[in-house]
Amino acid sequence: MTTLKNDRFLRALMREPVDVTPVWMMRQAGRYLPEYRATRADAGDFLSLCKNADFACEVTLQPLRRYELDAAILFSDILTVPDAMGLGLYFETGEGPKFERPVRTESDVAELRVPDMNDDLGYVMNAVSTIRNALNGDVPLIGFSGSPWTLATYMIEGGSSKDFRHIKAMMYKTPELLHQVLSVLADSVTQYLNAQIAAGAQAVQIFDTWGGALSGPCYDAFSLQYMQRIVQGLTKEAEGRRVPAIMFTKNGGQWLERMAATGADALGLDWTTEIGHARARVGDKVALQGNMDPSVLYADASQIEAEVGRILADFGANDGHVFNLGHGIHQFVDPESAKIFVDAVHEQSAQYHAHR
Amino acid sequence: MTTLKNDRFLRALMREPVDVTPVWMMRQAGRYLPEYRATRADAGDFLSLCKNADFACEVTLQPLRRYELDAAILFSDILTVPDAMGLGLYFETGEGPKFERPVRTESDVAELRVPDMNDDLGYVMNAVSTIRNALNGDVPLIGFSGSPWTLATYMIEGGSSKDFRHIKAMMYKTPELLHQVLSVLADSVTQYLNAQIAAGAQAVQIFDTWGGALSGPCYDAFSLQYMQRIVQGLTKEAEGRRVPAIMFTKNGGQWLERMAATGADALGLDWTTEIGHARARVGDKVALQGNMDPSVLYADASQIEAEVGRILADFGANDGHVFNLGHGIHQFVDPESAKIFVDAVHEQSAQYHAHR
Q: Which parts of chain B have pLDDT scores under 50?
């Protein structure tokens, strides 16, 4: 493997000193980029884009050609694992992801198996190694997965949901049945992330998009517990270096202390949590990643720069900050605004890392 | 005015002793009740149901005939105020509320006026006095309004939204323009709630459904500030009794201390906040209302009762708790489950109020 030319991202995740605050953007390979839309049109549809290593590599690299990002993230879908379990993932225009065979009954649950990482998900590992090669050591590559709870919401609802009617009915009525689903998912995600690490991922992020829809006790029992099991089962080191694990629960700002106690190296923050307050709450247990509202990118340059400055000042002169948006970049953002954002992080953060 | 036969709800909001914890349900007059669906069919459509005082009174009273609820809440729409501003509210089947004329430009904003509470919103005050008469002092009547920020999201987006693209672009790009909108709305909501109080409402609730989509500093500046202005402008007393004001920001659990400092008498909590923790944070500054996940009502009787018990125990032996769901009751809930819930609150809470 080639030497890593820019390891700010990995250093910040381990709360080690850096020259400037590293930055990347969730969903940085996405619809706001015209070149992404062109590649997606070439691929035909979204799943074909994910399943072809060359296309996936191309869109992963696109934002890195435009911006001085400090990390790349594997381009893939959050629902690859349930798809590999044979639930029949498909996309209806304007409707988001759907499953042909939602998981609702005891017999549905009994049939769930950990998918084979080579046979069923080999295309993801191909994408990881292809991207890693293409990166040529420029920046680290992040692997990722949805959290068990988040994957289960799609599997049980049969798609996106506002009220999580089916999964919550299962959770409150037959909690043991849901625990069975989550247990298979936790084993699957552990193997999935470890296979990504074996294929070349240098850090991993668990996306718990829907954990914030739970009460505190249910979050602990049905989301956090399984993420903790995954974190504990992850490969800790690869190529002689720690592989940091980032845990991100959207709307999870009330539970940061509990998340920090899981063994994760870093926590992702959405924009509803003030990062200075978060830092005070978690102390030096974990690094923090975030947390600008993606909608700030609709504003003018001076306003984007001011918001970057506010967040940097709120975090203060300390190690362990990876700058990011609090959620994925929106499709209607002007790509030029993303450049202003990324450059502002590097330019304004140097002062917090100097002379230390 | 007749004497109030059951004033537990008002007493709890003022943190005065009660015999059992009072309970009501957000959206208790709603689609989960077959008699509601029948009245709505008679009325023709949703807006006709809101605008006819007899229909509105009938659906307000329906849940009180089934359950031992400790309060009634005015049946009305959250968007009556922007509708009265002339924006052309309509409902598309399955799509939620829409406005014919969204507020986007400086000239759109310049045209906004506080509506006339008699001419434009007199139908709401008619409903309040009709319901108040029909209640005959059985339980208190709650008036309500959307918060300025929440109303503005619908007015500027033109309907419901996931990402609040237009209002957030306005907020970050031209904050003064949004402040103009919010200022007119704060004046309107103050007058609107005071007119409801004059017509007979005995408590009021401000629903800030979308404040939780904001960063902390933006929540303070664009939502909380205007709710505080409303609270400060409210009629404090009617019929010789305090008219308590409840402030409810969904997903606002991170900002309870700031909400408690506004002068509101009580805070509504969704289910993501643990009520014992919330109580410790706000001390004796405010009462707390909430906070069971409405999805618990999909479970069996013993599970509903256990969750009620857990929340009561978490709040503990103390004054100032109004039991409620953390959000509106879902349309697919069995009405019998709502009865189990309401009865469980009364039966299990007596122990926390005895001998004190």
A: none
Model pLDDT, residue B92: 83
Angstrom distance (rounded) from CA A51 to CA B243: 61
What is the per-residue pLDDT for B2? 66
The CATH number covering residue B136 comes to 3.20.20.210
Of the candidates B168, B274, B310, the beta carbon closest to that of A295 is on B168
**Per residue in A177-225, pLDDT tens?**
999 999 999 999 999 999 999 999 999 999 999 999 999 999 999 999 9
Q: How far apart are CA B248 and CA B7, in angstroms?
A: 21
pLDDT digits (tens, 9 = 90+) for A227-272: 999 999 999 999 999 999 999 999 999 999 999 999 999 999 999 9
Is the per-residue pLDDT at A2 higher than 80?
A: no
User: For A73-101, what is the mean pLDDT?
Assistant: 93
Q: How many CA atoms lie within 13 A of B140 on its CB side?
A: 25
- Beta-carbon neighbour count of residue A305 at 10 Å? 18
Tell me the percentage of chain A whose pLDDT exceeds 70. Answer: 99
pTM: 0.96
Tokens 């509903």 map to which residue?
A: B304
Averaged over A83-99, what is the pLDDT?
Answer: 91
- The closest alpha carbon to A74, from A231, A204, A185, A195, belongs to A204
Could you tell me which residues come within 8 angstroms of residue B44 by beta carbon, excluding any fewer than 6 positions away?
none
What's the rounded Cα separation, in Å, for the pair B71 and B63?
10
pLDDT recorded at residue A259: 98
Q: Which residues of B touch A300 (CB under 8 A)?
A: 173
Measured CA to CA in angstroms, residue B345 lies from A218, B33, B272 at distances of: 21, 20, 19
A166, A272, A277: best to mutate for the B interface, most B CBs within 10 A: A272
Instruction: Identify all chain A residues contacting B295, using CB atoms and an 8 Å cutoff.
Output: 163-165, 168-169, 171-172
Q: Report yes or no on A2 lying in a domain.
A: no
Decide if A67 is catalytic: no
d(CA A25, CA B26): 38
Q: How far is A172 from chain B, CA to nearest CA, in Å? A: 5
By C-alpha distance, which of B203, B87, B210 is closest to B147?
A: B210
Choose the closest CB to A173 out of B216, B219, B303. Answer: B303
Prediction ipTM score: 0.95
CA distance A80 to A47: 9
Report if residue B56 sits inside a domain: yes
Distance from CA of B298 to the nearest CA of A (A): 5
The C-alpha of A255 sits at a distance from chain B's nearest C-alpha, in angstroms, of: 10
Residue B198 to chain A, least CA–CA distance (Å): 36
Which residues does A contribute to its contact with B (CB < 8 Å)?
Answer: 163-165, 168-169, 171-173, 212-219, 251, 253-254, 271-274, 277, 293, 295-296, 298-300, 303, 307, 310, 326, 330, 332
Let me know if residue A185 belongs to a domain.
yes
Structural domain count, chain A: 1
Question: Which two structure tokens, joined as six digits, stand for A328?
Answer: 């994925």
For B207, the domain range is: 26-273
Q: Residue range A72-78: average pLDDT?
A: 97
- Residue contacts between A and B (CB atoms, under 8 Å): 97
Mean pLDDT of all residues in A338-347 = 98
| Predicted pLDDT at A93 | 78
The bridge status of strand A237-238 relative to strand A241-242 is antiparallel
Q: Is residue A1 part of a domain?
A: no
